[in-house]
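chain below, 116 aa
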Amino acid sequence: MHHYYKGEGTEKNLEEAFYWYQKAAENEHHNAKYSLASLYYKGEGTEKNLEKAFYWYKKAAENGNVNAQNDLGHFYETGEGTEKNLKEAFFWYQKAADSEDKFAQFNLGRFCEFGT
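prediction:
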């Protein structure tokens, strides 16, 4: 998967990377869930789809992926791929910040200061 995405040891092929990340995510590979969400978010290897990105970020966040928790906070804060929900945004930023993620700590501070 990663080799197709980065082009390490093989030719870079985003469609092939998407295929394998999807297979792995559907088989409960937790890191693949986050990677698949990112591909949907960026539209790499597939069409951009914020609802599917949100779905996979949420799955990864629920499995403890700190990056996904921070990203999920963003989705809830902005209403991308889901309905805007500031209570959920705060919850996910806080969860990631508790794991000492510096980006989540920044987002949580900004969120509290400006009350987005």
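Residues 1-7 have pLDDT under 50 and may be disordered. The helical segments are 2-6, 14-26, 30-42, 50-62, 66-78, 86-98, 102-114.
thats it, cya
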